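Thanks for the sequence, V.! I ran Glucose-methanol-choline oxidoreductase N-terminal domain-containing protein right away. Repeating your input here for the record:
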Amino acid sequence: MNLGWWWRLFAGALAGFLFFHGFAATETAPNYSFMYDATSASTLSYYDYIIVGGGTAGCPLAATLSQNATVLLLERGGSPYGNPNITKMASFGAALSDLSQSSPSQRFISEDGVINARARVLGGGSCINAGFYTRASDEYIKQAGWDGRLVKESYQWMEKSVAFEPSLGQWQSAVRDGLLEAGVMPSNGFTYDHIYGTKVGGTIFDQQGNRHTAADLLEYANPSGLTVFLHASVHKILFAIKGKRRPKAHGVVFRDTTGAKHKAYLKQGSKNEIIVSAGALGSPQLLMLSGVGPAQHLKSHDITVVLDQPLVGQGMSDNPMNAVFIPSPLPVEVSLIQVVGITHFGSYIEAASGENFAGGASSSPAVEYMNNLDETTFRGGFILDKVMGPISTGHLELRTRNPNDNPSVTFNYFKDPQDLQRCVQGIQTIEKIIESKAFFRFRYEFLSWPILLNMTANAPLNLLPKHYNPSMPLEVFCKDTVMTIWHYHGGCQVGKVVDLDYKVLGVDALRVIDGSTFNDSPGTNPQATVMMLGRYMGVKILSERIAN
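Predicted structure:
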């Protein structure tokens, strides 16, 4: 049997899936009267709140705070609206293949050798993800110390604009039924809730295939209370130290695309604050650049130490993802993440399908393979395993003092043996799905499970050396084929860098509100909870402001 053709199929399709997860936006761009390019910013300005990062948390936070305060939202990227490459789910793939400085995605490679991406666009990660929308578990909400009623209200506030029920095609239905055959029970139908068993989750793609992002939540802003500057790169937070009991954040320095420097300060008022929502890489990076972090590390970069805080940049985690590609003898629908199996052993099983993975290739060896393949070659899909938590953690350090450069980050995938065991059980569950009656017609009989695994293990998934062959245990497969599902978090964790109100410990008038504060990734996919946190904390901060 000549498997060369299948290998070319697999390598092209998988490379498309891994590296070209793109994003789309609503077809009609909103007319935000408060949104400008940073080149139009004055050199000096004053606001009640300054939010650094117009991402998944920053947008709902800014929209909420603007109801009763003046807010400046600084976003280093551009607008998600109006770019034809990022309009429809059908063109899913163009954004992450764009490695230009104007791309909505900034690629980075962790010290582990795993290729990854961070958002650089208004709307943040909700603009470059696979769109799955699902809430955190009740247990997660309780452990976080959040007010359950306000959490629910905050989720619902977003869901009326950005969450939809997907239409399930035949392939996703087969995955769902295969999960049930594999014992991931019960069947929970369509729900946003996080409950054990197999469910259909929400999506931020509407029925017409338009993506709705966190940027859409700015429609709820008070236009007279909000100013948004795009292409505004924040270089440091300014602290008042003289005569203060402890450092107090009171301004930021940002630059526009011409390199011109701008300063924005907080107005007088005890409730006014700077809020960092720059993401799990950007937030700890900015704190360090501003002098809040491990003293010796800051000194090695000639950064003046404002506060020696050794836990900034610690606790970095990225949920490991391992995928198996299954070529299909039948045409399959174009689908992103719709179905999820929430297991009791600690893995989440998800799937995506369709020939759209072939689009937008810009990376060898994908280009070489894909240029020689016709469209039918890309029939098939991926079933993937995401490890919950995870337990393994790493750290983040500065490489340079330029905030536009990626920091160095190590996630230590599978360092904890429990993470590895969860991956093994997840891969075993994927085998059961593929071997199920429900999934039978979407696979070729001659492509046995060992062959499918070997195809995956030999694909250019990461920069790690390859060891796996079918005689080896699944632990080796997990380590060799580890990828990201872009759910990395940590670096400014609650109880270590910020308190339960997300105030940075040891300084005044500074909070961090985003995924960098998480100890674990919420739900099966975090974007709903990151958006919720922005709204939730906006409501809490405003209520405190009004009460005093």
